Amino acid sequence: MTKTPLDIRAFYRDTLGVQGEDVIELFAKHTSFIYRNKGEVFIHSGEPVTTVRYLISGVARGYVLDDEGKDNVICFGCRYGQPLLGTARLTGRTSLYYEAVTDMEILEIPASVILQGIQMSQQNWAVYLRLLTENYDDQVKIQIALNTMSGESRYRWFLENYTDIVGIVPQNYVASFLGIQPQSLS
User: Fold this and answer.
1) CA–CA separation, 174 and 117 (whole Å)
2) Which end of the chain is more exposed for a tag (fewer CB within 10 A), N or C?
3) How far is 70 from 95, CA to CA, in rounded Å?
């Protein structure tokens, strides 16, 4: 967990690139620092988006349920500052569940405040679009790896691209993410 107090204003300005001191002040005023316990599901598929979450520490998994109720891991949240939304829209419904794989620290801010900040400073549309683009690019890279590589190659790709969470995330989640049987990971 974080060892030093988090400067929320610096997070928005330096990590996310939010523009305008008035917007940064607005965001800081409405941001909560939240702890999530390992195993806690903190975003549920189908819920309206009311909150935007940013990862500070820990690991989350995003997943969907198949027709039989079995969960399928779609993504991992493991980078400082990574948005944990479950959708690209600030006004839609989430399409994923998010669960804390480890104890986590996250920042939470109402989606309506993010929209207000974007309206206050049009430069922040560029910030929002950059975050969406980065997330989209990540998802495309994941899909290319998962859809063009053999199971063994996908596992090697995972080990190379997710080095910080190898050994932290249970093997069954890794196998689900990679679309292979857990026994294949040995």
Assistant:
1) 37
2) C
3) 15
Task: Look up residue 64 and give its DSSP letter.
Answer: E
By the 8 A CB rule, do 58 and 105 touch? Answer: yes
Classified as helix, coil or strand, 105 is: strand
Closest by CA to 88, choosing from 77, 96, 98, is 96
Amino acid 3: pLDDT: 53
CATH number reported for the structural domain that contains residue 95 in this entry: 2.60.120.10
What is the bridge-based pairing of β-strands 41-43 and 71-77? unpaired
Of 112, 107, 90, the C-alpha closest to 28 is 107
164 within a domain of the structure (yes/no): yes
User: Which positions of the chain have pLDDT values less than 70?
Assistant: 1-5, 186
Angle among Cα 51, 55, 127 to the nearest 5 degrees reads 70
- H helix count then E strand count, the chain: 6, 8
Phi/psi of residue 62, nearest 5 degrees:
-100, 135
Contact 102, 58 (CB under 8 A): yes
Closest CA to 130 of 51, 16, 50: 16
